[in-house]
Amino acid sequence: MARAPNYDQERKERDRQKAAKKAEKLAAKVAARERSKPEAEIENETPE
């Protein structure tokens, strides 16, 4: 016998996976931006 679909749970799981992928892409973008910065700009930044 097939189980009844739980659409709400499935939707939440897809949304969670999508958010995780988006966060991963954003982190990679930030890391790439930091790597591409010239050394002078990194030294001149004020620590927060």
TrEMBL record:
It comes from the Bacteria. Residues 8-40 have a biased composition (Basic and acidic residues). Residues 1-48 are annotated as: Disordered. This is DUF4169 domain-containing protein. It comes from Mesorhizobium intechi.
